[in-house]
Amino acid sequence: MTDATLTRYRQSIDNIDAALVFMLAERFKVTQAVGRYKAETGLPAADPGREEAQIARLRALAQDADLDPEFSEKFLRFIIDEVIRHHQQAQQAGTAGA
Predict the structure, then answer these.
(1) How far is the C-alpha of 84 from the C-alpha of 93, rounded, in Å?
(2) 95 pLDDT more than 80
(3) What pTM was estimated for this model as a whole?
(4) CA 74 from chain center: how many Å?
């Protein structure tokens, strides 16, 4: 036996999860292009000033959206760490090809 209300909630959650995955994929496509650009131009993989500004901005957005700012910061830091790792790989690939 299924609960129709629970099924509708779960369908909405599934749709949101799918949207999140596609949004993250698009974000990483852009950040990978940034990583290649940084590698080509000799810019550092990490930009602590930009990262802190983004975290502050996202914490404020989270608060406006009634989302725990601590959670949003942890989530963004996870993404930033992954982006930096990709940028470092792009730099290593660029160095190996030089």
Answers:
(1) 14
(2) no
(3) 0.80
(4) 11
